[in-house]
Design goal:
Elements (H helix, E strand, L loop, with lengths): L5 E7 L4 H11 L5 E8 L5 H8 L4 E3 L8 H13 L5 E4 L8 H6 L4 E5 L11 H8 L3 E8 L9 E8 L6 H24 L3 E4 L2 E4 L19
Parallel strand pairs: 1-2, 1-4, 2-3, 4-5
Antiparallel strand pairs: 5-6, 6-7, 8-9
The structure holds 5-O-phosphono-beta-D-ribofuranosylamine.
């Protein structure tokens, strides 16, 4: 334990490749956080294994064991709050969260979404991007607000859509970018460089171009 580092809790449901990218950055000394816990709503989530291998405490709050969403979320909140996190990061956490939950963590709950928000909120983003004929697709890290996938965007990364792409090839290209931008967004957050004004994220007090969206900085800029 390093008490000077910001405590971060990560919520997952499955594979945990974004979790792994975060773990790798912490290990490389590039992300000054304490991963206090990884919590999954599925006992079989592959990400739990990744966390255990990295020596991070893991917990399962199995949503199937609760009669109502409220009961599940209360158990989850208790588990999270026991860690006193500065930040809660959703990394492939496949549950829609209630207003009560979102409000409880307002300003310290972030998510990664595999599209260039506000396009393609919700599920099956890669299929929908291909069907739409988009030539650009990507990923966004955003603050979580009551409306699903609609909170202020912290950072986005875009990739080209190729004519021969399948949802799988496109997903792989996007995922690579997810692994770059999520650790960076977390770093900005714990370094206290982010502010939200009028529903837009400011980095170091400045709004980025492109409708206030923050795009990936050039190498060396961050
Ligand atoms: C990622 O594509 C993320 O954007 C979405 O769910 C997927 C999780 O992948 N929210 P992983 O579990 O991090 O590998």
């Amino acid at each position: 334990m390093n008490p000077k580092r910001a405590a971060v809790v990560i919520l997952i449901s499955g594979r945990g490749s974004n979790l792994q990218a975060i773990i790798d950055e912490v290990r490389a000394g590039k992300l000054p956080i304490e991963l206090s816990a990884v919590i999954s709503n599925h006992p079989g989530a592959q990400g739990l294994k990744r966390a255990r291998e990295a020596g991070i405490p893991t917990h399962v709050v199995d949503d199937r064991e609760f009669k109502t969403r409220a009961e599940f979320e209360h158990a989850l909140m208790q588990r999270i709050d026991a860690c006193r996190p500065q930040l809660v990061a959703l990394a492939g956490f496949m549950r829609v969260l209630s207003n009560e939950f979102v409000d409880h963590y307002a300003g310290r709950l972030i998510n990664i979404h595999p599209s260039l928000l506000p396009r393609f909120r919700g599920l099956n983003t890669h299929e929908r991007a291909l069907q739409s004929g988009a030539t650009r697709h990507g990923a966004s890290v955003h603050f979580v607000t009551r409306e699903v996938d609609a909170g202020p965007v912290i950072i986005q990364a875009a990739v080209p859509v190729r004519p021969d792409d399948t949802p799988e090839t496109l997903a792989m290209r996007v995922l690579k970018e997810e692994h770059r931008i999520y650790p960076l967004a977390i770093r900005w957050f714990v370094e206290d460089r982010l502010n939200v004004r009028d529903g837009r994220v400011l980095l170091d007090g400045k709004q980025r171009p492109e409708q206030g969206l923050v795009s990936l900085p050039e190498a060396g800029e961050a």
